[in-house]
UniProtKB/TrEMBL annotation:
It is an enzyme of class 3 (hydrolase). This is Probable M18 family aminopeptidase 2. Gene3D superfamilies: Aminopeptidase i, Domain 2 (2.30.250.10), Zn peptidases (3.40.630.10). Zn(2+) binds at residues 82, 156, 401. GO terms for molecular function: aminopeptidase activity; metallopeptidase activity; zinc ion binding. Its cofactor is Zn(2+). Its EC number is 3.4.11.-. It comes from Pseudomonas kuykendallii.
Length: 429
């Protein structure tokens, strides 16, 4: 079971280099399990026991399994995660030709650790919008092969490199793609048109725009002397998306269940498809159009906001509160912050701890040091919009926001087990 889940996660990460691809990967799994798309532009026809999903911007998705019990009686069991990760995104007019090299200008998306992006074999993926036969269409592309690199400056020319230096995103991050002759010009959009033709057989009249990200071509892997760890890109937060998906597909019972995987969490979630936008509330109100029924349902519901937690790094243990240092492979972490950076309260934490104990899943707690700032999640945002009770949890990881993160190889199975129990639970507190 554990090995199967870990390999499934590795395959999911490989297929999901961008939020667009992650959403497409989730759709593939959901449709194979009998979930049917609901188009936001059309009238919806749903029924008790039905399985549905809704997407927005091709990068956010909500999957719904409607129970046979009325939701105002049993409530909704919601699991929330996000599809985006910090990365380098290509600018609209990116072509740079300097010292005989073709480079692309990039913009840093989210709070990325920048140093690990150097000396990596990078590829490019995302969404391209183009004109075809007078119509505007979009398609996902993924070059897959290594086609760019950001070389470090040699230690001989930067003697203080190991003492730390501020990386200038404008000057130091443009990846190198090729060498070019002095009078040779390269049209990046023409390269994208060629990729559309090669990957999809589309002969676009013109590439109009794009949302493209560089990513590391080194695949995720189980690593360590005893296979204790999973190393890979975008574990924050595709790890939680995948766990939520597996739990939803494995859940038993007749309760109403929802999986919410939204884009733009790494930049604040304020967008049409982000957690700070209207997507989730609009979706739930269409399923529960009666105002009183909607409020009653929400007040009987619970959201598990799943986003990675900071594990205790053996080289930096002093960065944690001594009594609240989550260990890798020791189970999911309940995240608590009295200033509401996490939405956990004693009742929701108690219920999640109860679920873990009942299902023999180890559970931990995290509170940030009192002299350090605290990150946040979609939990407080969704709780603030819907008024739904929320617990913030996540699996402990190292190197969060690096191009390659590290998690425990036992923890995915722990999280899937407890989330499956949550989706299958008959009574909520």
């Amino acid at each position: 079971m554990r090995e199967q889940l870990n390999q499934g996660l590795i395959d999911f990460l490989k297929a999901s280099p961008t939020p667009f691809h992650a959403t497409a990967s989730l759709i593939k799994h959901l449709e194979a399990a009998g979930f049917r798309r609901l188009d936001e532009r059309e009238t919806w026809h749903t029924e008790a026991g039905g399985r549905y999903y809704v997407t927005r911007n091709d990068s956010s998705i909500i999957a719904i399994r409607l129970g046979k019990q009325a939701s105002e009686d049993g409530g909704l069991r919601l699991v929330g995660a996000h599809t985006d990760s910090p990365c380098l995104r290509v600018k609209p007019n990116p072509e740079l030709q300097r010292q005989g090299f073709l480079q692309l200008g990039v913009e840093v998306y989210g709070g990325a650790l920048l140093a690990p992006w150097f000396d990596r074999d990078l590829s490019l993926a995302g969404r391209v919008t183009f004109r075809l036969a007078g119509k505007v269409e979009s398609q996902l592309i993924d070059f897959k092969v290594p086609l760019a690199v950001i070389p470090n400056l040699a230690i001989h020319l930067n003697r203080t490199a190991n003492e730390g230096w501020a990386i200038n995103a404008q000057n130091e991050l443009p990846p190198i793609l090729a060498q070019v002759a002095g009078d040779e010009s390269v049209d990046f959009r023409a390269l994208l048109a060629d990729q559309l033709s090669e990957e999809h057989g589309i002969s676009a009249d013109a590439v109009l725009d794009y949302e493209l990200s560089f990513y590391d071509t080194q695949g995720a892997a189980v690593v360590g002397l005893n296979g204790d760890f999973i190393a890979g890109a975008r574990l924050d937060n595709l790890l939680s998306c995948y766990a939520g998906l597996q739990a939803l597909l494995a859940a038993e019972g007749e309760e109403s269940c929802v999986l919410v995987c939204t884009d733009h969490e790494e930049v604040g979630s304020c967008s049409a498809c982000g957690a700070d936008g209207p997507m989730l509330e609009q979706t739930l109100r269409r399923l529960l159009p009666d105002g009183e029924r909607f409020v009653r349902s929400i007040q009987k519901s619970l959201l598990v906001s799943a986003d990675n937690a900071h594990g205790v790094h053996p080289n930096y243990a002093d960065r944690h509160d001594a009594n609240h240092g989550p260990k890798l492979n020791a189970g999911p972490v309940i995240k608590i912050n009295s200033n509401q950076r996490y939405a956990t309260n004693s009742e929701t934490a108690g219920y999640f701890r109860h679920l873990c104990l009942e299902n023999e899943v180890p559970v931990q707690s995290f509170v940030v040091r009192s002299d350090m700032g605290c990150g946040s999640t979609i939990g407080p945002i969704v709780a603030g919009h819907l008024g739904v009770r929320t617990v913030d949890i996540g699996l402990p990881t190292f190197a969060m926001h690096s191009i390659r993160e590290l998690a425990g190889s036992h923890d995915l199975a722990h999280l899937v087990k407890v989330l499956s129990a949550f989706y299958s639970s008959h009574d909520l507190p």
